[in-house]
Amino acid sequence: MRVSLIQIDVNPDEPGQVRRERVAALVRAERGADLVVLPELWPVGAFAFDEFAASAEPLDGPTATAMSAAARDAGVWLHAGSVVERGTDGSGAEALYNTSLLFAPDGTLRRAYRKIHRFGFDKGEATLMAAGHEIVTEDLGPATVGLATCYDLRFPEQFRLLVDAGAELLVVPAGWPARRRAHWSLLARARAVESQAYVLACGTAGTHAGVEQAGYSVIVDPWGEVVAEAGPAEQVLSADLDPARVATTRADFPVLRDRVLGLPTP
């Protein structure tokens, strides 16, 4: 299974439509891959809080339209990173969400995942966006993918639920800051080890809203070994994966069967 992570430089001086066209061309250039992954909030920047409302779009907005066409033209599964979605909450009130989009090779939007854990500690994303509540997976054929986004990486319980839902590849788009790059690398490997699954962690490069981005997108195998890792600049990171290694790893070292949910009773 061929995967490609496109680590995009989110330059605040690049107009959004220009970036969409450039990214669509990068996706089309990956024809022959099985799965292409883009970073979190690349159309606007994960820390460009002041621009969230103005850049928000529905699930059939300009970013989704461009990415659907790119997926179809390339004939790939495309995890198009995430957008600021203008949607409605459970009460019907308008709300913004950090929403990842997964397109099939025919361009159909197959899954939309609203980020569950919002970053900011009572400011930024945590106050501007509503939280998602659904665990989202999709069968790609060679493997089942589970969706998470950036800050979700710090919450292992979400990944346990993804594994229980059948996930073998864990895709994590992010806009991770450079000052916490060590955590990015460590947590990607930790989620792979504990889940005995591949982790495809795709971040952004450059600096936006004054926040330097970590880059260093990484592909980790089910044993926690780094298959491929990017540098700090814009880059396409590709690797050939063997989905069967997930089942083999889980059979050879069957740690998941020994889970105890809650403490044993005396």
Give the tags.
14 strands, 6-stranded mixed beta sheet, Nitrilase/N-carbamoyl-D-aminoacid amidohydrolase, 25% helix, 7 helices, single chain, alpha/beta, 266 residues
Fold topology:
Layout lengths: L1 E6 L8 H13 L6 E3 L14 H4 L6 H13 L2 E12 L5 E10 L5 E6 L10 H4 L8 E3 L4 E4 L8 H9 L4 E5 L7 H15 L2 E5 L4 E2 L2 E2 L5 E3 L5 E4 L5 E6 L3 H9 L14
Protein name: Nitrilase/cyanide hydratase and apolipoprotein N-acyltransferase
GO molecular function: acyltransferase activity
Keywords: Acyltransferase, Lipoprotein, Transferase
Description:
This protein has a single domain (2-254), classed as Carbon-nitrogen hydrolase (Nitrilase/N-carbamoyl-D-aminoacid amidohydrolase), CATH 3.60.110. The protein is globular. Strand 1 (2-7), helix 1 and strand 2 (35-37) form a beta-alpha-beta unit. The model has no long low-confidence stretch (mean pLDDT 96). Helix 1 packs parallel to helix 3 (62-74). The protein contains seven helices and 14 strands. The protein has helices at 16-28, 52-55, 62-74, 125-128, 156-164, 181-195, 244-252, and strands at 2-7, 35-37, 77-88, 94-103, 109-114, 137-139, 144-147, 169-173, 198-202, 207-208, 211-212, 218-220, 226-229, 235-240. A six-stranded mixed β-sheet has the order 5-4-3-2-1-14. It is α/β, with parallel strands linked by helices and 266 residues long.
